[in-house]
Amino acid sequence: MPWKEVTLMSARKEFVLLACQEGANIRALCRQFGISPKTGYKLLRRYATEGEAGLADRPKRPKSSPNRTPDAVEASIAARQESSSPQKR
To answer: Region entry Disordered: which residue ranges (predicted)?
Structure first.
């Protein structure tokens, strides 16, 4: 008997569909799927606002970085490094 192939998206969709049923025990479903209740409720909230697209992974990169060097300073440093590097022949 072959193994049932389960993708992350299909598992998340199955979790949400079971959790949306009337009388569903969310914490028991979280244990069954091996996720924390915090993650389970987060998936349900995303699904309610965004639909299936909300179940996809999101980038971990921050949207902004307050300590980032300004573009003008980066450009001047790069120009200085290019002008001081020896020419390859």
So the answer is: 52-89
